[in-house]
Amino acid sequence: MKKILPLLFVLLFFVCSCKKDPDNTAKTVTIKKDANENYNISLLLDLSDRISLAKNPNPTMEYYQRDLGYIKSVAETFTQHLKVKKIKQMDDKIQLFFNPEPLDPAINSISASLKIAVDKNNASKDFLNSINKNYAAKTSKIYNSAIKDDNYIGSDIWNFFDTKVKDQCVEDKYRNILIVLTDGYMFHENTVVTEGKRTSYITPELIRKNGLNTQNWKKKFDEQDFGFIKIEGNLSNLEVLVLGINPDKKNPYEEKVIKAYWTKWFTEMNIKHFEITNADLPSNMEKIIQDFILKKPN
To answer: Which of 58, 60, 73, 216 is the most exposed place for a label (fewest CB within 10 A)?
Structure first.
């Protein structure tokens, strides 16, 4: 009996410790980890004037520098995933896109060189370490070239999802992850489509024009069916992380409106795992990026 009593106390303590806090149940996430899973990671860069030093200066850290920090974290997390796999199990990919493609052939050449596949035939410690260095150095050249050229072509994100994402970013038997670096706004002169209250773009002007800059914006958004135009097809095999949302500070509801547009759009495309985050210092975003890539909610 003396031996049984301490054991009962231990069991009772364990059960009590494992009880869920009713106030925190919404925060509980079951994580599925599979080190042997093959990753297919794509980055979509928004090289619009959001990175312009003249139009959008930021004394704390310029937005293009934040992008470079995010990209560095993505590359390092990709190689971190590889380093826990056995060489014979490696079959992983990382690539980088723009839409539309920049006019500078040098940028497109750099982009092509950042399309990397790692398998048992080329995996080595030096090669994995070179991925981090190449992504850091070469993406810096891309941003510096775009800023120096000062001819921002815009970013046609809606068209990319409509015509390219399924063919270029989704493969069977892979965990497909698309990371979009953008301020949350979408506009390109070649893709300006309107269907009722739905559009292929979102700008601060459109938000103001549609009266989504008041406290009743959500009611209006839902009742009048505002949002991005639906894209046909099922993207349930794609996960999306949006980094860098930077709402117009003149509208206190701007951030919520932008996120409502993206959330509705992703949900309608059957994208079940997505996250939309604001622009922040890379050091603050590193854990968010790592968790999204390395941990998959059930």
So the answer is: 60
**Domain membership of residue 221 as a residue range:** 33-297
Chain segment 246-261, per-residue pLDDT in tens:
999 999 999 999 999 9
Q: Which residues contact 157 (CB under 8 A, 6 or more apart)?
A: 44, 46, 99, 180, 182, 186
Identify the bridge partners of residue 91 per DSSP, sorted by sequence position: 119
pLDDT at 298: 64
**How many domains would you assign to the chain?**
1
Answer yes or no: is 28 within a domain.
no
Residue 290: per-residue pLDDT: 97
For residues 49 and 146, give the distance between their C-alpha atoms in angstroms, rounded to a whole number. Answer: 9
Distance separating alpha carbons of residues 213 and 209, to the nearest angstrom: 9
Task: Name the 3-class secondary structure at 101.
Answer: coil
pLDDT score for 294: 94
CATH number, domain with residue 162: 3.40.50
